[in-house]
Write a structure and sequence with these properties.
about 100 residues, alpha+beta, 4-stranded antiparallel β-sheet, 2 helices, 4 strands, about 25% strand, globular
């Protein structure tokens, strides 16, 4: 059944975007983000997992940030998002990612 509300513990998707002022913090955040999420653009990632798993991953990321100089955002996606992609593809033609929402 396709319910509009996320159930506790159910895997869902979040978009992570950041702008980090310091090159060392940027490198550290990049490495950690790339281990837990799929890179969509230079500083934009798709994280898929349960909310408790996301909070644990997020806690590791937030230790790196300087809230006075860095911009970090995490947006939850709805159950069936409508997404469009323009320009160069993030994956080669013919390669599909089944843990991500469909991009039109």
């Amino acid at each position: 059944m396709n319910t509009p509300v996320w159930q506790p513990g159910e895997a869902r998707c979040w978009i992570l975007a950041y702008d980090i002022a310091d090159p060392r913090r940027l490198a550290r955040l990049y490495r950690l983000a790339a281990r837990g999420a799929r890179r969509l653009q230079y500083s934009v990632y798709l994280y898929t997992g349960s909310e408790p798993a996301m909070r644990a991953w997020l806690a590791r990321l937030l230790v790196i940030l300087d809230p006075c100089h860095d911009d970090f955002r995490l947006y939850p996606l709805p159950r069936q998002p409508r997404l469009w992609q323009y320009g160069a593809a993030s994956l080669p033609e013919g390669v599909l990612c089944f843990d991500a929402p469909a991009i039109m």
